[in-house]
Amino acid sequence: MKCTVCKGPAVIDVRRHNANFCAEHFLRLCRDQVAKAIKDFTMLQPGERALVAVSGGKDSLAVWDILLELGYQADGLYLGLGIGDYSDTSGTFARAFATERDLTLVEVDLPTDHGFDIPTGARAARRAPCSACGLSKRHLFDDAARRGGYDVVVTGHNLDDEAAVLFGNVLHWQADYLGRQLPVLPARDGFPRKVKPLVRLGERETAAYCVLRGIDYIVEECPMAAGNKHLGYKAALNAVEATSPGTKHDFYFGFLDRASHRFAADAGAEREELRPCATCGAPTTGEVCAFCRLVERAAVPVALGRRR
Amino acid sequence: MKVLLRNPRRELEVEGPVRVHALLQRLDVPRETVLVIVGDTLVPGDALLDDADVVEIRPVISGGAA
Questions:
Q1: What is the C-alpha to C-alpha distance for residues A45 and A127, in angstroms, rounded to an integer?
Q2: What confidence score (pLDDT) does residue A306 get?
Q3: Out of B9, B60, B61, closest to residue A231 by CB
Q4: CATH number of the domain that A110 lies in?
Q5: What is the pLDDT of residues B2-59, one digit of tens each?
Q6: Do B65 and A134 lie within an 8 Å CB cutoff?
Q7: Where do the H-state alpha helices sit in A52-155?
Q8: Percentage helix, strand, coil, to 5, in chain B?
Q9: Do the Cβ atoms of A225 and B66 come within 8 Å?
């Protein structure tokens, strides 16, 4: 197999591009795809301070590395979610990446700072673990960005993530979610701007980027995610992609080009009702935000557990 | 050759020589869901693996949607 660009030995094929790449040209492809996403969707401006949500996994470390390679100023934010050994290990990878490159990594620890962990919080709130985790992460990303004076929060969502979320939202016609499923969410009502520079890269590509750049990341899957709906949507889309490469790209970018604007009003309707949370001041549709309600329910069982 | 699989982590002994895509087919692993790594670098689908290789089949699918 030869590199489509230089005809040297290839290390990876990217079927949706109908192309093979050597290490050098694959890394260039990844950087070019991220640069194109940033430019096409006006994600970042030179001189802005970005806060990258870092999990210790391939996507967040890849996007942090690529942003730095492209010359952007980017610090990291690691959230300790209290998911047993998984959180301990993922934190080790995030810290090692930052230390080896002399980068700033902001850390927030859910059990220490808010009195509960994700497994306990999910049980107490009777939510699926991924739901409690997502809610906590979104709140804490926004909060850390506001406190640190960052212009933008960067997440490692890739093309596979976005296509799978879109698939789920379409299957259930979640019009408000469809209205918000954009690669850039502008700053508004106390929320910082959020951007997803990896939307033009699949997760096989972000993993390959890390291997070729020598970036160590946590390979093990989060134990809370096993069997979740998101993985099922990815499996369904990958089955289609296997016989029709490029389908995920066409699905997601076709939505952005042709359908996304049709749902803008559904997302906007909810935003008009935002007001400050009575407990923490974060923008919310209710009197108390969903994260503070989760803390109220979840923090007590953890505290009792610790006293025993 | 020694083949390392993840999630769950396990090791297999597979007789070589065998090409990467044939190994994945034999193990019923869809090629788009993994990287194949020998030493510290990626190997493409047409690479020939032999008995001396230590091969990692690394999954790339993550479950978090948030």
A1: 38
A2: 45
A3: B61
A4: 3.40.50.620
A5: 999 998 889 999 998 999 999 999 999 998 899 999 988 899 999 999 999 999 999 9
A6: yes
A7: 58-69, 84-100, 110-114, 118-125, 129-148
A8: 15, 40, 45
A9: no
Q: Domain locations in chain B? A: 2-59
| pTM more than 0.95 | no
Looking at this predicted complex, what is its ipTM?
0.94
Strand A152-154 relative to strand A193-195, pairing: parallel
Among B37, B48, B60, most A C-beta atoms within 10 A, so best to mutate, is B60
pLDDT at residue number A221: 86
What is the rounded CA–CA span in Å between residue B19 and residue B11?
A: 18
Question: Across the interface, which of B32, B37, B64 has its CB nearest the CB of A204?
Answer: B32
Predicted pLDDT of residue A274:
82
Looking at residue B15, its pLDDT comes to 94
Domain-located, residue A106:
yes
Total domains in the fold of chain A: 1
**Is A6 within the bounds of a domain?**
no
Closest chain B residue to the Cα of A239, Cα to Cα = B30
A132-168 residue pLDDT tens: 999 999 999 999 999 999 999 999 999 999 999 999 9
Pairing of strands B34-38, B41-42: antiparallel
Q: Which domain holds residue A157?
A: 29-264
In the block, residue with structure tokens 């939510």: A127
Asked if the structure places residue A55 within a domain, the reply is yes
Which residues in chain A have their CB less than 8 angstroms from residue B63's CB?
Answer: 130, 221-222, 225-226, 228, 230-231
Chain A residues within an 8 Å CB radius of B41: 11, 23, 211-212
The dotted CATH code for B2-59 is: 3.10.20.30
In a domain, A184, yes or no: yes
Q: Do A221 and B63 touch (CB under 8 A)?
A: yes
CA nearest B42 in A: which residue?
A11
